[in-house]
Amino acid sequence: MPEAHSDADLLTAAAVVLNRHAELLRDLGAMFDAAGHQLYLVGGSVRDALLGRGSPDLDFTTDAHPEVVQRMLRSRAEAMWDTGIEFGTIGAAFGGQRVEITTFRADQYDRVSRNPQVRFGDSLDADLVRRDFTANAMAVRITPAGPGEFIDPLGGLAALRAGVLDTPTAPEDSFGDDPLRMLRAARFVAQLGFTVAPRVRAAIVDMAPQLARITAERVAAELDKLLLGTDPVAGIDLMVSTGMGEVVLPEIGAMRMAIDEHHQHKDVYQHSLTVLRQAIGLEDSGPEGGPDLVLRWAALLHDIGKPATRRHEAEGGVSFHHHEVVGAKMTRKRMRALRYSKQMIDDVSQLVYLHLRFHGYGDGKWTDSAVRRYVTDAGPLLGRLHKLVRADCTTRNKRRAARLQASYDQLEERISVLAEQEDLQRVRPDLDGNEIMVLLDIPAGPQVGRAWSYLKELRLERGPLSREEATAELLAWWQTQGNR
After folding, report:
1. Is the dihedral of CA 103, 104, 110, 113 positive or negative?
2. Within 10 A of 389 (CB to CB), how many other CB atoms are there?
3. Which long-range contacts (CB under 8 A, 24 or more apart) does 238-243 make?
4. Which of 328, 344, 434 is nearest to 381 (CA)?
5. Can you name one GO molecular function term for this protein (predicted)?
6. What H or E segment, with its residue span, contains residue 42?
C-alpha cells in the first residue's frame, strides 16, 4: 500500500518530477500552441509523477491528428517513429528523452478480439474515460510556459491517494473492451502496491476466462512486468485467487493442491512464493544486481513439477521424486506457449532442472568431479543457481536452515578453489577436434564427436590432463572401440 499523502503532497511531488523536463515541456507546449492544438501529459506519466517517480517515456495526448503531429515534430525531433500510427501514436526522441504523442481516442471494441476499431475523439474527457484505471486517467495541460492545469475528472487523485485500482466506467465494460486490463491490474498491484476495488475484483473473477482472447505475446509482456515489480507475490496472488492464473499460468495455481514433503508450508504454492521473495532479496548480492527476470521466473516455477510427481509413501509421508525433471519439461512447454525466446526458455528450464542437485551434496561428500559437473551444467547460470538454491531453503527450523546454508557456503568455497586451479566455466577436452583426427587418423564425422565427448567426460572426472596423458587415454579408448 502506498504511503498516505495529501493531495498537496502528491501535486508537489509531481511538480518536482516534471520540472526535470521543463525545457522539453515548454518547447512542446509552444509548438502545439502555435499550431492551434492542445497537448496534455497523460496516463502513467502523470501517475508516476504524482508518486514522485520518473517514467522512461513521457506519454501525451492531443487533438491533433497523427499526420499533423508528424509534420510538427519532423524538424525538431532527433528521431521519430510511426510504428503505432494506426492507433494514432507518433513516437519521438528529444535529447535522449522518448515521448509518445497519441491523438484523442474514442475507440469501440468488437468484444471478440482485443483490437479496437480505432476512432479519433474530439475531447480530452472522452479520451480519459476510455483508459484502464482512474489512477491512469489524469492529465496535465502542457502550455508554452510548461506544465499547467491538472485535470482529474474521474477521481484518479483520490484513488492514487488511497492506493486503489478502480475503472473509469463499469469494470465489466472496461474488461469486456480489453480483457488484458484484468492482468494489468495484477501488474499494477505488483508494481505500485495498490489493491483492487471490490467491484473490480468481482468483475475479474467473473470475466477471467476472457483472457483467452489475448495473444500470448501480450500476456507474456504483462507477466514480465508483474514479476519485475516491487512485490510480484501480491500480483501473482491476485492473479491466482481471481482465476486469471488458470487461463494464463495454470501450473502456478495447481501447486496449491500439493503439500510439501517437510510440511513446513501450507502448500507448495506458498513455498514457491516464499522462494520468490527470498530470491528477490538475494538479487543485489551479486555484481550484476537489480531485478533479474530469469531468476524470478525460475524461483516461481522451480517446483511446478511437484503436483504431477506427488506420491503418498507407506510410512505416511509425501514424496515428489524427479519433480525437477518434470518441472523443467513443464517450464519449457508453458514458456513456449507464451512465445518466450529460446534463450529465456533454456535458461529458466535449466535452473528448474538443476535447483535440486545440491541436495545430493550432503555433508560435502561430492568428489571434485561432481563439483565440476555442477559448474559445467550450470554454465553462465551458476550465479543465478547459487541464489535459487539458497532461496529454496525455507525451513523454519533455524538449526537446519543454518546447516544447509553452511553446506552451500562450503560448496561455493570448493568451486572457488577449483576455479583457481582450472577454468571451470570452460571445461573442454585436453585435445581439440583437429588433434583427435590427426592422432586417430580419421576424417571429420561422428567418430570425432564420440572421441571428443569421451575426453570431456575424462576431463570432468579427473581434471586437467597433460597432452601426453590425454593422448594415451584417447588411444586406449580408441582400441576399446575395436580400432587398432
Report:
1. positive
2. 24
3. 238/185, 238/186, 238/189, 238/196, 238/201, 239/183, 239/186, 240/269, 242/182, 242/201, 242/204, 242/205, 242/208, 243/204, 243/205, 243/208, 243/209
4. 344
5. CCA tRNA nucleotidyltransferase activity
6. strand 39-42
Domain ranges of the chain: 7-162, 249-424, 428-480
Residue 119 CA to residue 108 CA, distance in Å, equals 7
Write the class of the CATH domain 7-162: alpha beta
Residues 6 or more apart whose Cβ sits within 8 Å of residue 211:
179, 180, 182, 183, 219, 244, 247, 248
Instruction: Record the cell numbers describing residue 218, joined without a space.
Output: 501480450
d(CA 20, CA 25): 10
What is the chain's length?
A: 484
Assess whether the region 7-162 and the region 249-424 belong to the same CATH fold: no
Given CA atoms 122, 127, 129, 135 in this order, what sign does their dihedral have?
negative
Residue 12's SS3 state is helix
CA separation for the pair 396, 399 (Å, rounded): 9
- What is residue 313's predicted lDDT score, i.e. its pLDDT? 76
Beta bridge partners of 312: 318
Measured between alpha carbons, how far is 261 from 158 in angstroms, rounded to an integer? 46
Q: Which candidate, 343, 318, 338, 346, places its Cα nearest to that of 250?
A: 338
What amino acid occupies position 124?
A: L
Q: What is the C-alpha to C-alpha distance for residues 37 and 125, in angstroms, rounded to an integer?
A: 16
- Residue closest to 137 by CA, chosen among 166, 109, 177: 166
Strands (E), 107-236: 108-109, 116-117, 139-143, 146-151, 164-165, 195-196
Do residues 429 and 452 make contact, with C-beta atoms less than 8 angstroms apart? yes
Q: In whole angstroms, what is the distance from residue 44 CA to residue 304 CA?
A: 34
DSSP notation for 85-141: GGGTEEEEEETTEEEEEEE-B--EE-SSSS-EE--B-S-HHHHHHTSS-GGG--EEE
* Cβ proximity of 109 and 178 under 8 Å: yes
Per-run averaged pLDDT (10 residues), the chain, 484 residues: 74 94 96 97 96 91 96 92 91 94 79 64 92 97 96 96 96 94 98 97 98 95 97 98 97 79 67 96 72 97 92 76 94 97 97 90 76 87 94 86 87 84 65 85 87 81 82 85 72
CB 295 within 8 A of CB 387: yes
246-257: b or e for each residue (b if 16 or more CB lie within 10 Å)? bbbbebbbbbbe
C-alpha grid cell, residue 419: 576455479
Predicted TM-score (pTM) of the model is 0.85
